[in-house]
Specification:
Number of strands of chain B: 6
Shape of chain B: globular
CATH superfamily of the largest domain in chain B: OmpA-like domain
CATH architecture of the largest domain in chain B: 2-Layer Sandwich
Largest sheet of chain A: 5 strands, mixed
Order of helices and strands of chain B: HEEEHEHEHE
Largest sheet of chain B: 5 strands, mixed
Number of domains of chain A: 2
CATH architecture of the largest domain in chain A: 6 Propeller
CATH class of the largest domain in chain B: Alpha Beta
Radius of gyration of chain A: 21 Å
CATH class of the largest domain in chain A: Mainly Beta
Oligomer: heterodimer
Helix content of chain A: 10-25%
Number of strands of chain A: 29
Structural class of chain B: alpha+beta
Strand order of the largest sheet of chain A: 2-1-3-4-5
Radius of gyration of chain B: 18 Å
Helix content of chain B: 25-40%
Largest interface: A-B, 59 and 51 residues
CATH topology of the largest domain in chain B: 60s Ribosomal Protein L30, Chain: A
Strand content of chain A: over 45%
Strand content of chain B: 15-25%
Amino acid sequence: MIRPSCLLSLLAITLLGVSLQATDAPTITVRKSDALNVAFTGIGGGEGALASKVVQNDLTLAGWFALVQPGMASFTVSGAYAGGVLQGKVAKGGEVVLSKNYSGNPRLAAHQFVDDIVQTLTGHKGIATSTMAFVSNWSGRKEIYLADYDGSNGRQLTHDNALSVSPALTPNGRRIAYTGYQAGYADIYVVDLGTGARVRLVKFPGTNSGARFSPDGNLLACTMSKDGNPELYVVGMGGGARRLTHTRGAESSPAWSPDAAEIIYSCDETGAPQLYRISSSGGSGRLVPTGFGYCTEPSWSPDGQRLAFNVRSGGGFSIAVMDLNGGSARIVAQGENPVWGADSRHLIYSTGGTISLLDVPTGKSVPVISGLGKVTEPTWSR
Amino acid sequence: MRIHSFAILSVTALLALSGCANKKNKQYAGVDGDYVSGTPLGERADGANFMGANVQRGLYAPVQFAYDSSAVAPDQESKVSAVADALKGSGKTVIVAGFTDERGTQEYNRSLGEKRALAVREALIAKGLKANNVQTVSFGSEMPVDPASNEAAWAKNRRAEFGIVK
């Protein structure tokens, strides 16, 4: 017997155009009644139009809410924007549950307001103020770009005119690391986004690539080949490197656990790449069984509960999500490079040269970056 | 705990010495021992850029690889020998650049490309070149020889190229 909740999931997956395999049993389902009924009455004030549009979009993308008419709503969101200040308010009937002023441009103020709404009503961190980084070949060479999580406010960060790839943001979004080839080899550069200062941090002989910041932003895990094989290392901001893995395979794509104690990564020692889990202070990598023969690019959800990664199934690449406390992996979308957002609910990923935002529980996917050349390797702050 | 680690180390060393190291343990990706899995790279040649004017590319035929493999196949050995024979005793530095086909995710391909470059480097060292004179770089799936998406193009793109530092 198929429960209605399963049917909903099936429908969502079918709508996404994902082929269902026997192993892809849906394990996470959300019924419409799980969403909070929220009414948005708009942002008033002389300059409220843009803020209103952004709040509406953020509330829709957040995934936690069903936007309904005021009469049906449990909560009412309203506000006014004037003189560079957004006055935001959320009420439950006659009771005000959130009232706060946000100064700054309408877009940023709206994002901050919605993140506060998400925090207040659900207890979860929001994604609306996240910064996204990605690679685009728009200028003719691959360079690093930045944008807001919804695709607005896009700007080119690097002008290296070489190859600039594999961006990683610190969780607070203030610094970015990437792999740059301008010196002829693959090196890891770190840029302070506040000052624009750039450091060529990792420049050992061979290839240095795939840096990922630790949750506190003070360490980088990355792949280096200086010792004669691609292995994982942990590097401090002073540049000193500590070796993590010792295998005959090619390691790549380290993903930190939220408490920084462990790293899950990809290694092809036994043939096709598989995922392994290792203490971030060293030791042995233990296989993470996924049920898939080819797994790369893991991302560990900030709540520590789930893993998203790439699998190869058939001719193409799919994104799988797996509960780390047990349970089988299931395909949630077609694409590459999934990265969890701050809410442990959304993934951004690349598909067909665009970047999409996926709400995992509902299966809804929205393109956020397209028409900017071929865009790949997205990541975002938390 | 210490004794346990030492035991694992010894077993690994024995396995490596007895040539059984390719009997892979399915549960563990390596053990925490500092055995060298390749010849460490020497300092880079100053200012040498594989894609720059100070490196001569295209003098030697690239080494081709099977899908998802970084092993230098027997039928590719002569290409490595040609480079080793030409450079032996010259003191010149060669940069081996590894490439993959477009399949596979980007960062995995960078790692796989580097493994290919390192495999060719080991072969060059085995054929007489000094370790410090052989550098590596990986471009992953960038700069394909043939941009088409078919088996023939992919086979051409899975390669390691040689660049001689002028």
